[in-house]
Amino acid sequence: MAAIRSLHAAGICVAMAHSDASISHIREAASAGLSLSTHLGNGLPHTLHKTENALLGQLAEPGLAACLIADGNHLSPEVLAAMLRIKGVERSILVTDAVLAAAAPPGHYRFAGMEVEKDASDVVRQPAANHLAGSALELDQAIRNLVRWGIATPEQAIRMASINPRRALADAARAHGVTLPPGGVLWSDDLRPMEVTSS
Asked: Is the pLDDT of residue 156 over 70?
């Protein structure tokens, strides 16, 4: 907890991930300055206690914004819908967990000393393993996914990919003299980016 307090006091945005923390530890960490759940629902033990686990602790903590990978592989549409109902649009952020294979055709790739395989359905795994190794998701596709699955309106999905992450990082950026200028994206009717503007 001392590290969280120190980082928060230094103007650093503190996030948690790949954790098996108890609900009470998560609550204490949030009080100390923890503010983000990185790719919520992933990187957890395969077996969780039904009422006392890190996933429920993060969902229940109002001070934590939830970063969600909306690719249908890390989290199913049904799980995403449930998480969004609990966290709400304002406390939800779309992320990708994309690795270098994201914009590449299916095949084998190496990064961080690890071999990964991207299959024809855009799932990225380590060869011969059944666990995910990042994602091939691009952020505009995450927006389209939420809308296509009926989980969010276009306006809500775009907000979760733009305004919400900007707001989550604003205090830390300001503390270090970094300006996050507002920008904009012109979207087509089928939610594909057509033009990016900055101010």
From this structure: yes
Confidence of residue 47 (pLDDT cuts 50, 70, 90): confident
| Residue environment code for 40-72, b if the CB has 16+ CB neighbours within 10 A, otherwise e | bbbbbeeeeeeeebbbbbbbebeebbbbbbbbb
Do 169 and 132 share a domain, yes or no?
Answer: no
In the annotation, is 97 catalytic?
Answer: yes
pTM: 0.91
Q: What is the pLDDT of residue 199?
A: 65
Looking at 20, 71, 97, 122, which residue is catalytic? 97
Residues 6 and 77 occupy one common structural domain: yes
Using pLDDT thresholds of 50, 70 and 90, give the confidence band for residue 134. Answer: confident
CA 79 – CA 84 distance, rounded (Å): 9
Query: The domain containing residue 119 runs over which residues?
Result: 98-136
Residue 128 in contact with residue 114, Cβ under 8 Å?
A: no
Domain count, the chain: 2
For residue 185, the domain's CATH number is 3.20.20.140
Residue 145, sorted as left (phi over 0), alpha (psi -120 to 50) or beta, turns out to be alpha
